Inverse folding.
């Protein structure tokens, strides 16, 4: 097909513009990556803004899915009623024993507290948030929550499901927030082994079982040891259950978290009045510059 | 004859279907399924959308819209901003430039090309995220995500083809 000169030139020009636009978009993507790496506040705000805009849609879309999950759960439970009953009876006898032990220890604890004049920990404030987004990316473990700064969610706060640690808040929008799970590659949780009080850092690596690193002292950690949060770092209050040691191989200790990611529907974002996992506040600008502004 | 305002609006709505469907696929991926085993890994549905429309209607999902979808994907999924934007852009660009090759070819060829392209795309994403986070990311879940995406491709292509037939047959 032959084209006249003008049309041909126009087509070439259009192709050039298209190529140029494509290239500039590629450069734009690269620039965004670098800006994001530099932790620019603007990028963070944009993320939060877009997440806020998507949140109501995700929330609405997720509700039928939750209902479907509930129905299938119901069928599942009905089918396993007998075995479940037997298991629960057995567990109940065990728990009755533990209840007696706990009662005795509690009364003993109260007496000791009184004798030592212990100041009790303040009751934490919390917000219950619905999990509205779980992308299930292979590159990171995070979830979108349907509550944000207007509900009192702040960056760095601990997220619990029941009594169990799930993660912490990493980004906050007005009505949505991003929670980083303890299994995420960026998550670091100060923990102790409950029985021996050995300190360590629980390091996520995007697998379902995070590693126990920086173990202090000469530990004798064995499979089945319970791991709870440590007070060090001022991030989380001590004693929140995290998981149990599931394997010790060649010096690599892996922990099976108590959380079951797929069953998370509501989580509590808890404000323990501590600084949170990291000092997120930027340091104040240098004194000199501030004085310059006043003049 | 000049088309009336209603015809124009109808065309406009029909033309926004590819972008709308791809965003819908994106949101669909983000919904918590509450299914054990599935929670950690989800198929890259929006990638299939971008690939499909780049071949069959590149005029309706041009590069800049693929870029926007990638950005949304980054924000909803929590990956470093720009990674999926670049990946979607590359997939759109490659598929759209080779579309003459695909048109009229059998489904197996399209699937095979998708496997190649997605392999490259996920590989690039893995490299970029590893570089940006400063640590090598465990490649096993990535591989699993890739296989899951591949296995869902026929189903999704069928759904997208039905959508195209329903909305975009003659506009």
């Amino acid at each position: 097909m032959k084209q006249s000169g003008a049309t041909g030139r126009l087509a070439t020009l259009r192709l050039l513009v298209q190529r140029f636009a494509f290239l500039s978009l590629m450069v734009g993507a690269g620039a965004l990556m670098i800006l994001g790496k530099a932790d620019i506040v603007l990028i963070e705000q944009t993320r939060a803004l877009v997440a806020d805009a998507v949140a109501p849609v995700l929330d609405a879309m997720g509700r039928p899915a939750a209902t479907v999950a509930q129905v299938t759960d119901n069928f599942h439970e009905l089918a396993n009623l007998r075995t479940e009953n037997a298991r629960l009876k057995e567990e109940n006898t065990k728990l009755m024993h533990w209840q007696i032990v706990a009662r005795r220890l509690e009364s003993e604890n109260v007496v000791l507290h009184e004798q030592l004049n212990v100041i009790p920990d303040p009751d934490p404030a919390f917000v219950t948030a619905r999990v509205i987004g779980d992308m299930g990316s292979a590159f990171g473990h995070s979830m979108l929550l349907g509550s944000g700064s207007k509900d009192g969610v702040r960056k760095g706060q601990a997220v619990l499901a029941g009594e169990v640690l799930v993660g912490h808040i990493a980004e906050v929008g007005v009505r949505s927030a991003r929670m980083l799970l303890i299994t995420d590659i960026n998550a670091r949780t100060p923990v102790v082994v409950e029985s021996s009080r050995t300190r360590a850092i629980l390091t996520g690596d995007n697998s379902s079982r995070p590693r126990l690193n920086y173990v202090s002292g000469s530990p004798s950690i064995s499979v089945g040891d319970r791991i709870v949060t440590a007070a060090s770092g001022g991030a989380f209050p001590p004693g929140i259950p995290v998981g149990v040691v599931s394997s010790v191989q060649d010096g690599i200790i892996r922990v099976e978290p108590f959380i079951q990611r797929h069953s998370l529907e509501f989580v509590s974002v808890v404000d323990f009045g501590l600084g949170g996992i990291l000092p997120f506040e930027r340091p104040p600008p240098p004194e000199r510059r501030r004085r310059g502004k006043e003049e | 004859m000049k088309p009336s305002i209603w015809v124009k609006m109808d065309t406009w709505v029909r033309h926004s279907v590819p972008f709308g469907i791809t965003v819908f696929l994106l949101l669909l991926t983000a919904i918590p399924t509450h299914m054990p085993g599935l929670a950690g890994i989800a198929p890259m549905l929006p990638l299939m959308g971008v690939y499909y429309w780049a071949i069959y209607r590149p005029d309706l999902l041009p590069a800049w819209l693929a870029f926007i979808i990638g950005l949304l994907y980054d924000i909803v999924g929590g990956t470093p901003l720009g990674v999926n934007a670049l990946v979607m852009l590359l997939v759109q660009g490659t598929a759209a430039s080779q579309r003459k090759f695909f048109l009229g070819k059998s489904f197996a060829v399209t699937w095979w090309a998708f496997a190649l392209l997605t392999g490259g795309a996920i590989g690039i994403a893995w490299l970029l995220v590893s570089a940006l986070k400063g640590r090598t990311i465990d490649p096993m879940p990535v591989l699993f995500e890739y296989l899951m995406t591949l296995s869902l491709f026929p189903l999704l292509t069928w759904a997208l083809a039905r959508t195209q037939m329903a909305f975009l047959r003659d506009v």
